[in-house]
User: Which sequence fits this backbone?
């Protein structure tokens, strides 16, 4: 599967979804404590807005390392070798580091939510265009700094597609509109979810659930 194509198609579909969200839902519930605007802010910030800055220079360059919270203290060599490894890392980091990462994510969600302004669809469309242009100029083997550590572009970008699809579905549910992500993007995100489950030891639980053997436990999540 072409990770570049799935990212582009997911980004286009996410912009279309944002354009269809009802105006009277933006300040209503989104996900957890987030409003719908903050949920879109989180997805647009983590999966679109940060991409040009992260891809702009080789790993280890100060401009890149300062663009990602916590990156300055991480090594500039590939530390995470797969998309599932990115998400699985959250199960192993110290509690205080995980809490700090969550707090940074919440701040970015609120900041990006404010930047959406009165025309969120146009703003998100511009962010998507910049992200896809930046990706077009990056090589598969380029090493970039992410919140999880240094990763190759080909391993990191699928985690951004995952964010777009998962939070796109969240936003569609909160906004009461239909989600319309392409099959290849949904397939990539679903496959990654299964790989995350296997990486963190929940593979058998997920396999039994999707084959109708037994339901998933309450509040179960692979991330």
Assistant:
């Amino acid at each position: 599967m072409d990770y570049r194509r799935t990212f582009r198609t997911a980004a286009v579909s996410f912009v279309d979804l944002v354009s269809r969200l009802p105006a009277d839902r933006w300040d209503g519930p989104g996900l957890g404590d987030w409003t719908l605007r903050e949920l879109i802010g989180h997805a647009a910030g983590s999966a679109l807005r940060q991409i040009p800055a992260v891809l702009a220079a080789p790993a280890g360059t100060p401009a890149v390392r300062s663009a990602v919270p916590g990156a300055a203290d991480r090594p500039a060599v590939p530390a995470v070798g797969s998309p599932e490894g990115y998400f699985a890392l959250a199960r192993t980091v110290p509690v205080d580091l995980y809490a700090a990462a969550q707090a940074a994510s919440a701040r970015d969600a609120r900041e990006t939510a404010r930047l959406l302004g009165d025309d969120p669809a146009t703003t998100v469309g511009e962010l998507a265009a910049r992200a896809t242009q930046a990706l077009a100029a990056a090589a598969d083997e380029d090493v970039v700094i992410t919140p999880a550590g240094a990763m190759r572009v080909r391993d990191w970008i699928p985690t951004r597609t995952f964010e777009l699809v998962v939070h796109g579905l969240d936003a569609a549910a909160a906004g009461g509109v239909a989600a319309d992500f392409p099959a290849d993007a949904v397939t990539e995100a679903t496959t990654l979810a299964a790989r995350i489950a296997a990486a963190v030891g929940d593979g058998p639980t997920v396999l039994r659930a999707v084959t109708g053997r037994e339901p998933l436990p309450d509040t179960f999540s692979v991330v």
About this structure: The chain has one domain: 3-201. Residues 33 and 39 are 9 Å apart (CA to CA). The beta strands are 29-31, 34-35, 143-146, 149-152.
